[in-house]
Amino acid sequence: MTLALLTMVLVILVGMLLGLPIGLAMWMSGAAYLAVKGQDMALVIEQVGQGLYNSYVLLAVPLFVFAANLMNAGTVSERIFDFCRLLVGRMRGGLAQVDILVSVVFSGMSGSALADAAGPGLVTIRQMLKKPEYSPGFAGAVVVASATLGPMIPPSIPMVIYALVSGTSVGALFLGGVVPGVLMTLLMMMTVHVIATRRGMPRDEPVPRREWWGIAWRGAAPLSLPVVLLGGIYSGVFTPTEAAAVAALHALVLSACVFKALSLRAFWGVVIESARASAVITIILAGSFMLQYAFTAEGVPQALAIWVEQQQLQPVAFLFMVNALFLVLGCFLDVSVLLLVFVPMLLPAVGLLGIDPVHFGVLVVLNMMIGLIHPPFGMLLFVTKALTGIPIMAMVREGWLFLVMLLTLLVAMTLFPSIVLWLPMQMGYGAG
Fold first, then answer.
1. pLDDT tens-digit profile of 86-141?
2. What residue segments make up the domains of the chain, in order of their start?
3. pLDDT digit string (tens) for 245-285?
4. How does residue 47 score in pLDDT terms, banded at 50, 70 and 90?
5. Which residue, among 248, 209, 414, 393, has the nearest Cα to 326 in the 3D structure?
6. How many CB atoms lie within 10 A of CB 249?
7. Where are the alpha helices (DSSP H) in 330-391?
8. Which ranges of 253-356 does DSSP label H, i.e. alpha helix?
9. How many other CB atoms sit within 10 Å of the CB of residue 250?
10. How many helices (H) and strands (E) does the chain have?
């Protein structure tokens, strides 16, 4: 390791230990690298400019953020909750089952785990806490676990970012997440059923038949968004990036015009919050481009690929090493940092071993979703605690079975790539 690279690593570590925003720490480390190398600081602007303004795919990220915030500000979450309650509320542990199905529906609109937890997740937690059979820890654990469905079922913000750094087809990645997302849903519902049966949790009260049509009608408009998005993408009507703009417009029309639940004041609040969240992501992106420049200049990705070749690692062994690495790093680092800093270093080795980039991308996203719910620093745990006041350790104690289920699925996806690749291949991925 050269002095410049060592300086860069030390600066970012010190910045993180001091509690600096990760994006600022990345910028400082990039500047320190250039200073030690004696290179022109204007390279910072050049690298950031080329990275940010040459990427059409990147536009999808703030647009999906905006769409998710619009839906959370309107009555979309409540409408989806009522509709899903009608479908699965009568199952054992009904409200927990409702939360999982709500997450499936909402994931087809937002692509964000945090938006899922902060929107529909908060609605279902409030409903569960009204009943003594649902402990606060269990309610929080179900919401935290089901929120991981957001980036797995298309559309997905992390998959868009992965496509940015890897050059992989966004559409193929979205398709690759469908089967794992369905399996996650079924496994979560089975887990809830086992826990609910063991504890004697109640079924939800039946919805009177006279209310069925009204609830279905109220839920029809929000449910149209995933159909429009995915139908438009895979029919070729618009690209995934354009789909993000369609999602934002659709959410705005629903919330403001159809539901009339978005005042001008609330809309301005959505704009400010979306701009803030997008700015945070952009600062991290900008810092990551500097780190990528430094790692590439120092030959780190190539050196890693050579090491993998020398060790004669098999693809499965390499993937298990990557799983272990991301499961550890995911407990401490933001999803964007993992995607933008560590994934580019691994891509040459992925290509050398002949690992399909779609398979690798979906595995990486699932790894990071597990990191969001894994102690000690799982972001979804902290978000849910901030919104509800439920202690983190209570959610951890109640959520270990969900964590085991996700780890089991991760192992299966690692050993059997067809779980990820079957649907993309059915739709023409890899043909020719």
1. 877 777 778 888 888 888 887 776 667 777 776 777 778 888 888 888 888 998 99
2. 3-426
3. 888 888 888 888 877 878 888 889 888 988 887 787 777 77
4. low
5. 414
6. 14
7. 335-337, 343-352, 357-373, 379-388
8. 264-297, 300-311, 315-329, 335-337, 343-352
9. 22
10. 23, 0
Q: What angle do CA 324, 328, 329 make, to 5 degrees?
A: 115
Vertex 330 angle, CA 376 and 406, to 5° = 90
Q: Count Cα atoms within 13 angstroms, Cβ side, for 383.
A: 20
**Tokens describing residue 124:** 């279902």
- Can you tell me which residue has the tokens 């399909």? 356
What confidence category does residue 412 fall into, taking pLDDT thresholds of 50, 70 and 90? very high
Where does residue 197 rank: exposed (0-12), middle (13-18), buried (19+ CB within 10 A)?
Answer: exposed
Q: Which residues contact 138 (CB under 8 A, 6 or more apart)?
A: 96, 128, 195, 398
Q: State pLDDT tens for residues 273-325.
A: 888 877 877 777 777 777 777 877 888 777 877 877 788 888 999 999 999 88
User: For residues 135 and 129, what is the distance between their CA atoms, to the nearest angstrom?
Assistant: 7
Tokens of 407: 């780890």
- Pairwise CA distance, residues 293 & 77, whole Å: 42
Provide the whole-model pTM. Answer: 0.81
